[in-house]
């Protein structure tokens, strides 16, 4: 994966703003949103992966991101927290893991970054690596049809990608990918817009 020529949208929109991503997201309520994602279940810069490992030290945690700079920050964050996490470079639609490998897969503020033609492919790849009886949990921005967006949501994210994130569209893509009983299980308003929580079975 290291030599891939594929492009991706950095987590903060631009490489120069990556150091600002964590403090801004924390300030705007992102940490609370991620904690709520874990509560629904009972990588980016590694905040979610580190949180999972700190709360559940006996589980094996793997984080994936295409951005080497984000992965470097994630590794430093895990080291500061003194937790052991496997961080891999790769794309969500080409997951480098065997079939039925994970009990649970989490996605935090990633889905809206994908071009429309990659969203279904990514969900199919995720479905492939979830064990039978396992679950997929996703936290992401709501589409414009689902409610008003804050100023920062419009500033940071293109309207084309956001409008492809409506509840109906996300649930339809999950069903087409083979997930069982996908549903929106929560919602919250944040300064940068509305976010939705989804859950689906394998």
Overview of the molecule:
Helix 2 crosses helix 3. The mean pLDDT is 78. The protein contains eight helices and six strands, in the order H-H-H-E-H-E-E-H-E-H-H-H-E-E. The strands form two sheets. Strands 3-4-6-5 form a four-stranded mixed sheet. The protein has a single domain, classed as Vaccinia Virus protein VP39 (Rossmann fold, 3-Layer(aba) Sandwich), CATH 3.40.50.150. By secondary structure, it is α/β, with parallel strands linked by helices.
What would the keywords be for this entry?
202 residues, two-stranded parallel sheet
Task: Please specify the SSE layout and strand pairing.
Layout: H1 18-27, H2 30-40, H3 47-55, E1 62-65, H4 68-80, E2 86-89, E3 102-108, H5 116-129, E4 130-141, H6 151-156, H7 159-163, H8 167-176, E5 180-190, E6 193-201
Parallel strand pairs: 1-2, 3-4
Antiparallel strand pairs: 4-6, 5-6
Number of domains: 1
- One letter per element, helices H and strands E, the order comes to HHHEHEEHEHHHEE
Please tell me what the overall shape is.
Answer: globular
> How many strands, what sense, and barrel or not for the largest sheet?
4 strands, mixed
Terminus-to-terminus distance: 27 Å
The CATH architecture can be given as: 3-Layer(aba) Sandwich
Give the % helix. 25-40%
CATH superfamily: Vaccinia Virus protein VP39
Strand content: 15-25%
Number of strands: 6
Mean of residue pLDDT values: 78
Q: Uncertain spans, ≥5 residues at pLDDT below 50?
A: none
Class inferred from helices and paired strands: alpha/beta
Helical segment tally?
A: 8
CATH C-level: Alpha Beta
CATH topology: Rossmann fold
């Amino acid at each position: 994966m290291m030599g891939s020529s594929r492009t991706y949208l950095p987590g903060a929109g631009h490489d120069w703003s990556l150091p600002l991503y964590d403090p801004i997201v924390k300030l705007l309520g992102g940490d609370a949103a991620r904690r709520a994602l874990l509560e629904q279940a009972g990588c980016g810069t590694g905040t979610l992966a580190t949180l999972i490992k700190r709360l559940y030290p006996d589980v094996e945690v793997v984080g994936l991101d295409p951005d080497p700079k984000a992965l470097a920050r994630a590794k430093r964050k895990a080291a500061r927290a003194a937790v052991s996490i496997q961080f891999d470079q790769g794309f969500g639609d080409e997951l480098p893991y065997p079939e039925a490998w994970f009990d649970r897969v989490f996605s935090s503020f990633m889905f809206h970054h994908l071009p429309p033609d990659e969203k279904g492919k990514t969900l199919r790849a995720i479905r492939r690596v979830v064990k039978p009886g396992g679950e997929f949990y996703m936290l992401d921005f709501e589409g414009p049809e689902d409610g008003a967006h804050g100023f920062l949501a419009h500033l940071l994210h293109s309207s084309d990608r956001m409008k492809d994130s409506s509840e109906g569209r996300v649930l339809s893509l999950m069903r087409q990918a083979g997930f069982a009983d996908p549903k929106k299980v929560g919602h919250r308003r944040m300064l940068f817009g509305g976010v939705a929580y989804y859950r689906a079975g394998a």
